[in-house]
Amino acid sequence: MANTSKSKITEDKIIGLFMESVLEQEKIPGSVYKFCKENKIKEDEFYGFFGSLDTLQKTIWNKFFDNSFELIQKNKEYPGMTNEEKMLTFFYTFFENLTLNRSYVLFMIKEHKHSMEGLSQLKGLRKRFKDFASTLIEERNEEKNLKILKFNAPLFSEGAWLQFLFILKFWAEDGSPGLEKTDIAIEKSVTTIFQIFENTSLEKIVDLGKFLYKEKFV
């Protein structure tokens, strides 16, 4: 592996080295010491960005979200989109981002296939995604005059998160050319969930999300 000591160590460089190490060794490094030694970087350089390998893994998922959200914000048409269109745009962008790193993501999903819902790596991503979903429903609530017609943002965001986990699993198992079936799943899933939101209690939506999750993860 190339000597990195002559080049500036950055957060992105460490992330790249970690992802490369995972794929080449087909396992997560046993310790920060081993990871740094194999990649010829100093431990204090690593700890300047991450407190542990677990923190590093969480950061990778966070960056998938942050990079995707930054991209959709740059879309001049985004502010004028409906909430459904905003959610669709995010999903398409996010999973395109995942596809660029598909080998790494599939490895991590395979490593934790029996505990994906509680996977600690996803905690930061879960918070970011639920905040995003809550913002969308709060924007829609502003359009409703009667309190009884307004949606519960926390419950909405939880249902959206379960929907996200379902699509993540679908994406991981998709063997279609260009992962075209995932695009179809995203469109149908998001469209359906917004239609249900308008006509069904949120408790039933969460039950639907749990059903979809169980069908794909258990």
Topology:
Elements: H1 11-25, H2 32-38, H3 43-47, H4 53-73, H5 83-100, H6 102-111, H7 123-141, H8 153-173, H9 180-199, H10 202-217
Helix pairs in contact: 4-5, 4-7, 5-9, 7-8, 8-9, 8-10
Structural account:
With 218 residues, this protein is mainly α. Helix content is 70%, strand content 0%. The chain contains ten helices and no strands. The protein has helices spanning 11-25, 32-38, 43-47, 53-73, 83-100, 102-111, 123-141, 153-173, 180-199, 202-217. The longest helix is centred in the first third of the chain and has 21 residues, at 53-73. The radius of gyration is 19 Å and the shape is elongated. The termini are far apart. The model is unreliable at 1-5 and 145-149 (pLDDT under 50).
Produce a short descriptive summary.
With 218 residues, the protein is mainly alpha-helical. It has 10 helices and no strands. α7 (123-141) packs across α8 (153-173).
List keywords for this structure.
single chain, 218 residues, mainly alpha, 10 helices, 0% strand, elongated, disordered N terminus
N-C termini distance: 39 Å
Low-confidence stretches: 1-5, 145-149
Number of helices: 10
- The radius of gyration is 19 Å
Number of strands: 0
Q: What sort of overall outline do the alpha carbons produce when their principal axes are compared?
A: elongated
Mean pLDDT: 83
